[in-house]
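User: Please predict the structure of the protein below. I'd like the answer in structure-token form so I can feed it into my own downstream comparison script.

Assistant: Understood. Taking the following sequence of 523 residues as input:
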Amino acid sequence: MTDVDRPFSRVLVANRGEIAVRIIRTCREMGMETVAVYSDADRHAGHVRIADMAVRLGPAPASESYLAADAIVRAALATGAQAIHPGCGFLAERASFAAAVESAGLTFVGPDSQTIAALGDKLAARRIARSVDVPVVPGTLEPASTASPEGVARIIEAARELGYPLFVKAAAGGGGRGMRRVTRPDDLPSALAAGSNEAEATFGDGAVYLEREIRPARHIEVQLLGDAAGRVVAIGERDCSIQRRHQKLVEEAPAAGLSAAQRQQVHALAIRIASKAGLGNAATAEFLCDRDGHFWFLEMNARLQVEHGVTELVSGLDLVREQFWLAAGAPLSAGALAAAEHAAAPNGHAIEVRISLEDPARAFAPMAGRVGRFRLAAGPGLRVDTALEPGERVPPDYDPLVAKLMVHAADRPMAIDRLRRALDETEIDGVQTTLPFHRFVAESAAFRSGDLSTDFVETYWDGPAVRRAAVRRALMAAGLAFFEPVPTAFPLSLAGSPAEPHGPAGSTWLAVARAEGIDRWPG
């Protein structure tokens, strides 16, 4: 393959885990060499093993490794990389990092630093949306000042005019960091201080603002692509309403229950904002959809999203491949234009669940540890993105996401059936994961009917009760299995050793139930 056939010859991927592996795989398909970066905690991680080269950044803390912008740029220059793909999270939406990459003569695979500054700052994005007559979630448009009694008085008055409940939100970053829900005026000053402190620690920017709570609401986001010539298109929308702590658990494309006219409307609103900001490359516009079907602009993520895979499944695009060509200055591809033309009537339905090391019975508390059995589902219409292997230790230093399981089918009911089957086939032990919650969702009548909102978890999920029932069933089955006769001889495996017994007595669920049915519930 010649350089004419590929946008770059070598790319540094400035991320870790499944998203780094996913990007590296597209690089290989495009004939581009890859450079991984890693912390001491990730020395033997999957993204390091799969890359052509790897460079150590520093100790485990992200502030000393994956957030060390200067070290990452130096690694790219030292290894001869021509471009840096930031993945999602870490430095992906840091305008200062994109600017440092550009200043070093390298290509940043994403929107340029000026666009990130305009869209990555939620307040700036809200002002852009207002300027092009896109409805914005009611709230303040400037940072909340708490440095003086006068500043506090002004923000308290603004909150009174907005009405309670409301949110204190970080102007930079996302993922629920720096967010505080406030239900009464007396709690506002402490929420402002706590939110600002968390935002400063997480994003290096303590600016916060106020936003009215819209409830109930669905969380709808639109996938956008733009080129250097100023053309912006929407590749479709996703529903990301099922969340915990304002972080997504389940995503699907297209959003269930929207008419073609509604899809076209929200796509047009997103394009209007992105065009005003001069988007080049990939971004996602996020909206809340209220009970009356009105769309309210929430924020713009000027990067690749974790859930981009469901859009790929229904559009037929490789969004990372599109990103690389757009970063190299190419116009929107014929495939992207065709996908945009059919975005209001996508090909089938796709659903993604994020499998994380969290305990859904304990408010999704993050976990860490060494994975035992790690058997992922397979079969038609199924995609799994992961960097994990059996026996690998998941460090506590980073996001606990370990795999994204995606299904694609002709329609939503078939996709849900496929998801249920795939989750039944998936086995992960040694650590607690979110699998019990995802199985609950796949079996849920509310989910199947499209009764979706950001209140889904609060309304339908009772983690402790589901855990008690699951452990009770597992212990009962384990007790029954104890009285079953044990075969005197097992069938031989191909390797000549006794094969694992079939049936209930040999299942992972029962083995876990016997060993630790009280402490770790079957997952």
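That's the full token string. The CA atoms of residues 224 and 234 lie 5 Å apart.
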